[in-house]
Amino acid sequence: MTHANYDRRQLLRIGGGLSMLGAAAPFAAQLAAAGSAASQSAPDYKALVCVFLFGGNDSHNMVLATDNDSWGRYFAARNTGNDPIALMPVGTPPTPVGATSPVTGRVASAGSPEAWGGVLPIVPRTPNPIPAGTNASVRTFALHPFLQPVKDLFDANRLAVVANVGTLIRPITKAQFEARTVPFPDNLFSHNDQQSTWQAGQTEGARTGWGGRFGDLLSSQNGTSSLFTAVSTGGNAVFLSGQNVVQYQMSTGAQPAVVIAGQSGNSLFGSTVAPGRVREMITDTNTASLFAADYATTTSRSIGASTTLNNAFAAPAVSAVPAASPYRNPITGAIEINNLAVQLQAVARMIAAAPTLGIRRQVFFVSLGGWDTHDFQNTAQGNNLAKVAHALAYFDGALGNVGGVNMRNAVTTFTASDFSRTFTTNGDGTDHAWGGHHLVMGGSVRGGDIYGQYPTLGVDIDAFRNPDMSRSHLVPTTSVDQYGATMGRWLGVSESNLDVIFPNLRNMVSRGLGFL
């Protein structure tokens, strides 16, 4: 773990949202000029929503290559162990629980892939290149059987797949990685470090993330509501921390901001003047202690923000944002709370409040845990993927009518995760790995396609030399820098600022991925 020494202002900034300019850096020098230029742009609205899957999603069971060559390798590698994680081929009907699967010869249970039916075929608009050395004549693809809502969005051209994304310093091959001849990120298989590297470009201890840096450059477009530029409904995230912008952590309840009851009520301890006195005390900056003065400034700002936000959320357009339909666990059949859908409802409500608040640019962070599937992967990941599909479909529908306006074109939603997982199974799960596949959704997304080279799948065997895998994990062919820069460019960040936010971008073959 990295330990840092913080001064009093940095502590307040982390704890309470004290907005100030961070340590001197090339990026900081550009903020004023960039903000001035941004404020002259057209009065439109755009938002970026990061859906972080904490724990490392096994994306090999989310997006699959299904041509005979690829599927043979996939099924051979994953149809092993005491609880095999191999999914069933396209077109396979579900095997009733208790019956024997004609594909595997095993008795199906509610938590086994045999009971779920085959993977769901998707047809990308652009043929994916066929890797050298394979026996395939064409590449075909599919999604996990619980991702029908994602397939619907893909078919409607509002969702795309980005293949084999990972943290990189520069392009690297399997041979270079194994020989250690090209630099690569530190602590590749560490949860905390890779979560931080995905969000901030550095291992644990990073202070600013690329979402927050986007906010630094664009917050001037939000006028007096700049405090709501970077908003999290998924907890504290370095992704949203900027050098000037501080993330606003919002409740997912009907009242989005914290209210200090004593200072905002009509009476306190039987006194009608006591609430005002409480407010004066907790916002009094005339103190000899600089720490106390800064704390009072932060508290005062928080009180003002809560009042502003709660008033904005009383608008009819916000109240009209629907809740998600009930979520049913596809394995147990039980009705569960889909926390991801609840978070995205809060995001949709904030988007609906944007005109009232005068906001033009926002970056959001939502999250879902439970992806560290060393064990019991079938049931744990299956339920989580179904939650993602349910939440994305809900969010797409809610954005289709925000106060009578279709806001889909104005919002881009993307997944991120610590890393993907090993292609081989450990018996009933998978272990930490590297490159993985991700989903990007929105009306501006060039959907219905797969971007980047989908890798060759399978374990190394004598009959086939696998160029993409090292010890059963994929070496990324697309960097997080390229992934993030594509979205930053859409949001309005200049090429020169992208080079500062993503310093490894200049090392890559291309600066963008074409899905926006």
How would you sum up this structure, described in words?
- With 516 residues, the chain is of the alpha/beta class.
- Helix content is 32%, strand content 12%.
- The protein is built from 15 helices and 16 strands.
- It has helices at residues 8-16, 26-38, 68-78, 148-155, 174-179, 191-200, 210-218, 261-264, 274-282, 290-312, 316-319, 339-357, 377-399, 480-491, 495-501, and strands at 46-53, 63-65, 120-122, 141-143, 159-166, 230-232, 248-249, 327-328, 335-336, 361-368, 411-417, 436-441, 450-451, 469-470, 473-474, 478-479.
- The strands form 4 sheets. Strands 1, 5, 6, 7, 10, 11, 12, 13 and 16 form a 9-stranded mixed sheet that branches.
- Helix 12 packs parallel to helix 13 (377-399).
- The longest helix is centred in the middle third of the chain and has 23 residues, at 290-312.
- It is globular.
- Mean pLDDT is 86; it is low at 1-43.
Q: Strand-residue fraction?
A: 5-15%
Shape: globular
Total beta-strand segments: 16
Distance between the termini: 36 Å
Subunit arrangement of the protein: single chain
What are the segments in which pLDDT stays under 50 over at least 5 consecutive residues?
Answer: 1-43
Tally of separate helices? 15
The percent range for helix content is 25-40%
What is this entry, summarized?
By secondary structure, the chain is of the alpha/beta class. It has helices spanning 8-16, 26-38, 68-78, 148-155, 174-179, 191-200, 210-218, 261-264, 274-282, 290-312, 316-319, 339-357, 377-399, 480-491, 495-501; strands at residues 46-53, 63-65, 120-122, 141-143, 159-166, 230-232, 248-249, 327-328, 335-336, 361-368, 411-417, 436-441, 450-451, 469-470, 473-474, 478-479.
